[in-house]
Structure formats: structure tokens, C-alpha cells
Amino acid sequence: MVDILHRVGVVTPSPEKVYDALTTVEGLASWWTDDTTGSAEVGGVLQFRFPPGGFDMKVLDRRDSELVRWEVVDGPTEWVGTTVEWNLRQDGDHTIVMFKHKGWREPVEFMHHCGTKWATYLMSLKALVETGKGAPSPNDVHVAYPD
Amino acid sequence: MVDILHRVGVVTPSPEKVYDALTTVEGLASWWTDDTTGSAEVGGVLQFRFPPGGFDMKVLDRRDSELVRWEVVDGPTEWVGTTVEWNLRQDGDHTIVMFKHKGWREPVEFMHHCGTKWATYLMSLKALVETGKGAPSPNDVHVAYPD
């Protein structure tokens, strides 16, 4: 089992805006993909769609301004059953975002791609909170093409 | 042992320019850090310096337009003994860069940071080859601050 791990620091006085961007359909649509639907409550399922396909994520857990956990319940075979975990904490004028996409069965080429792509989406989340404008799909940063 | 894995696709007709950017001091200085010195030949040591510190990398292996491998011989404790491996292959009009920073002993917070930061440097390498201009330190993309 192998994991994708990332960390960004978002300039913002409290974790609230980052947490909102991870726990509302409008927030998620503003940095990951504008085609986001579903329920962001615990037990709910979020549908994230991109031009090449997408993911359904069940919300396993959320704790105000601290934690969000999803399980991938539909999408590419390599993703199904993996979990995505966000931990937030405040450090001075930054919200530190610790990101884990856990439980990949093998370090396949697609996992390498997703590792880089997640980084660009985390930078989109950071930009959204800091500037009001993210780069969600279909206006996302391309790390290869098509991606 | 845990690894940082990434993949980018660089629009270029052959892997030659990417390989040059990984195997010459001038190339490395144009996307990773402008304070790069040393020898990029097999058995040589490269010194990469950034405002907060740096790394010395011994060149373990290189094969024209295919492979580069370094071992970290000096730098932060977490990095020493880890290896950095670049595999290149051509796929149509893209050079596919498969990147592995292997052998981290623990998935510490610093590893999360380095995972994100490597992604931004890979995007700098991609930009260098595609546009002639990368974003090496000290003009690198910040994923937190200081970083």
C-alpha cells in the first residue's frame, strides 16, 4: 500500500475558509472541478466530474476546521477503496493543510500522475482562499496532456 | 520506506532537452536552483543550494535520454541516503518524465512538504523545456512560507 502525501500553507487567519472549501459543493467546485454535485455531509456522497471521467467520494468524517475524510466509492479501478484525508491546523498566519491519498495498491504510473496533479489542485485551493480565485477543472493546470 | 512519485509530460520532440536539463549544471540551475555547482558526471557530486540550505547529490548513474540517478550524500537528515531517480521516454510529442524520490524512512511532515515542492519544480522543468524559462530558486513557486 502506497500513499500520495502533500502539504501546503495557506495564508489566512484561521482554517475556516479552507475547511469551507473542502466541505461545501460550492467550495469544492471553486478549486477542484466545477462539475461537483452531491452531499458533503457525513455519510453523503460527492460526485466530482472531469472531462475524462470522475470520482464519487463518500464523506466518512468531518470535524470543524480540523479534518475531512472521504472514501472513493466509484471511479477508476485504482482509486476505488482508497481514502483521501485532509488535516488542518493553524500556525501563525498560515493554515497548514496536510493531505493524504491513502491505500493505493501499487505505485502504478497513474499514481505518479495523480501525485503531481493533486499538488496542482492543492495550489488551486491555496489560491482560492488567498486570492478568491482557484483553477478548477476544466480550467486546471495541465501536468501532461491529456490530463 | 516511503517514496515521493511524480509524472509530467513535456511537449518536446525527443527526451534530449529534458535529459540535458538533468545532466548539466547550467540545465539544473535553470529549473531547480540557480545556485548549482559540481560535477554531473557519473561518480561526481552536485551541490544544490537554496536560501534555507541545500543538498549534495552523488550521480550514481545516467544513460543518454533515458535515466538519471542521484544519491543524497549531504543535506537534511531525512534526505541523506535517499535516492532520486528520473526515467524518460518519448510518447508522441511528449517526453514522459517519471520521477521517484525513494527511501524516506518515515512519512514525516517534511516529506509531505517535499512531495508538493517537487511537483512545482517538475512544472518548472516542464516550463523550461517548453518555453525556455523555468522557475528555479530563489524565484521558485512557494507552497508555504518559508519554503
TrEMBL record, chains A, B:
CDD domains linked to this entry = SRPBCC_CalC_Aha1-like
This protein is called what? Answer: SRPBCC domain-containing protein
Annotated InterPro entries: ASHA1/2-like_C, START-like_dom_sf
* Organism encoding this protein: Nocardioides vastitatis
Domain annotation Activator of Hsp90 ATPase homologue 1/2-like C-terminal: ranges:
14-130
Family, per entry: Belongs to the AHA1 family.
